[in-house]
Design goal:
77 residues, alpha+beta, 4 strands, globular
């Protein structure tokens, strides 16, 4: 949960790295860009009424690639 809102999160593994993918209604989306924190990169996007965040210690280009593949409908990087 984030606050009092259920936050569905899928967890993927890419080699030795974990990727968490969380979805929330766009109305609950954080304002402003999210920056890397403590070595974790974040990729965010919206699709219809949902906002998504992919978070991992993967290098930023690899996490971007994961997000692109996920948005295309094939979450196997």
């Amino acid at each position: 949960m984030i606050g009092l809102t259920p936050a569905p999160t899928l967890v993927y593994r890419a080699r030795q790295h974990v990727i968490s993918l969380t979805a929330l209604p766009v109305s609950l989306q954080a304002g402003g860009p999210i920056r890397p924190i403590d070595g974790y990169n974040v990729v965010e996007w919206t699709d219809g009424s949902l906002a998504y965040w992919a978070v991992s210690d993967l290098a930023a280009p690899e996490l971007e690639k994961f997000a692109k593949i996920f948005r295309a409908g094939n979450a196997e990087p």
